[in-house]
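# nightly structure sweep
# worker-07 picked up a monomer target from the shared queue
# config: single-sequence mode, recycle default, output format = structure tokens
# input follows
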Amino acid sequence: MKLQCKKTAAFLTAALLGVFFLAGCSERNSGNEAAETESSQGSTPETGERTAETEQDRGDAAGVSEEIISLPPAMPAVGVGRIMPEVVEQRDILICVDPGHGFEDGGSGDAETSFYPAGTLEKDITLAVATMVNEDLVKRGFQTVMTHNGIDQPEYDWDGNWKFNPNERVAMMNDLNPDYIVSIHTNTTGNPNACGVEIYYDHVSGSKANDWNEPAAETIAAAIDDLVETTAPTDLRNPINAENASLAVIRDSHPAACLIELGFCTNEQDAKNLIDPTWQASIADAIAEGIERFFDSRES
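# output follows
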């Protein structure tokens, strides 16, 4: 009996020791986990240094950013954000543009015999339109030359009277030997109902270098009718009697040529058109367009 009791007491003692041992292990494990958690949440000296360095870096970066913002904007690289001009194919074709009259020769259009405002003369209209024609031809790739600019005395004004008469112009044109000549004028008549554009060309004299006179004039007339609001359809004139001195530029010049009367200063509506810069630009563009169409047709 005593032996049995001793065995039972020993068993109970061992069981209690096992319980206490397991409880101690559990507490130690919990403590270790807590310590690890605190360690991960806290800052070791090494991680603290890294954190401080990161904050310092951010501060430095912020300072650099502010300096960059205060700098002026950088210029764009070449070609960036810019519209490149259209490349125009250059033509080996020379056009002579002749502003009618000029200098001391005012042409038609005084206030008593025309609907032009006082002080406006034919020479003013012809120079303005001829200059636009010249510019429009250059934009289309043509080589151009004007017989005068209304300011500088032409070299071919031989008598020095500042009138630059038709025969002097013809001498200049023949020396230049362009591929085509266009002479710009405005018209006048005693009939106030006469109106519209007239284009003169010559094929009677036989002195021309080619047979372009008529087809070129026809093409220019068609372009004007297509693109310009005029008071009448463009009238083509092939003068049988070309003895008029003003027609010398189409009669005596060797290159193909035409003389364009833009309208009648003696017609009220024509006169309004002729002094209107917008209308001037439209007919100048149409003349250049007609010349381009003609030479395009020869190249095709």
